[in-house]
Amino acid sequence: MSIYMDKRTIIRIGIVTGPTGGHFFPGLAIAEQLREKADVKTQFFVPDRRYIVQWLQKKGFHYKTMPDVRTTIKNPLSFLKLIYLVFCSCHILLKNKYNIVVITGSYATLPFLIASFLCNKKIFVHEQNAIPGKITRVSFFIADRIALSFPSADIRYKKNAVITGFPIPEDFKKRYQKKDILPLFNFSENKRTVLVLGGSQGASFLNNLIAKNMDYLSKKNLQFIHLAGMEKEKLSAEYGRYGIKAQVFDFYFDMAKLYSITDMIVCRAGAGTLAEICEWNIPAIVIPYPYAGGHQKYNALYLAQRGGCCILEQNSDAIRIFPDIFEKALKESDTIKKNLQKILIVDSAGNNVRAIMELCKNGV
Fold this sequence. Notes:
By secondary structure, this protein is of the alpha/beta class. Helices cover about 40% and strands about 15% of the residues. The chain is built from 15 helices and 13 strands. It has helices at about 20-35, 50-60, 75-95, 110-120, 135-140, 180, 205-210, 215, 230-240, 255-260, 270-280, 295-305, 320-330, 335-340, 350-360, and strands at about 10-15, 40-45, 65, 100-105, 120-125, 145-150, 160-165, 190-195, 220-225, 245-250, 265, 285, 310. The strands form two sheets. Strands 3-2-1-4-5-6-7 form a seven-stranded parallel sheet, sandwiched between helices. Helix 3 crosses helix 4 (about 110-120).
């Protein structure tokens, strides 16, 4: 047998992601699973964001950063840039002879989506949210397969859609012993640990929500890990003022360590965060980000209707009623954990990769 692999057997897959964690991490998780296959080579095409580059370098994936553009009627030049990026994407796809392009949504992936169609490349689109985004809605007309994290009852999308679940990167699933991680944060075993995740959008609201309820929280037997973004110093001072044990970070790389010691989460309703809640079976108070299309509301409702979380709407009453919602989550935490075990939105069986390989080898 020749020690040289026949080049014709190599499946070349381009993975194109958007700039947010919700769009990038599903692509990373898919690539991790594809890398285990000897006949597959992957290449990332991503917006130039520091954290994305850091992750790809850490994992040793080949990548190329690409300019991104939001096309708007108010900015006619954005359409010219889009055309240029489509041309560049076509050149890349044809030069490197990709068999399939995997797209995880966001405006930043539009040039590759169009280019893949023009170059007659197979297209696999992963939709993270309960309500398909704009790119996915466009993709239903041209993609070979649409992979859904949440079940969709819309019969218009059944022809080329398949429910695969949300793929979670290995780093986010790694298990640690609680007793080994608590000392890293100088935490006690006799206190419940609450994790506050601001998210990439709207972190200030969650920070303010917690800050305004410090008096109530100081009376509970709690300790906090708070990812506060740019307001790290402000939140750290507030916790100190009320004598609450807390570790405040702007960002934390190893989320599995945090999940390993967390008893409750206060967070946004991004699909990735909710998938991780289901993976770890952690009760949560979920506050959907009301802007950016409002898709987080439907993500949260999917879990809440199945008893998998408590919802707190972002409005003028949120600060006042937060203690009531918090008490409800504490009281029902055991029931919520059991319900989360039944909610199947995590791709724990490699469904996305299986669908991608079927497209590559067997056609549509």
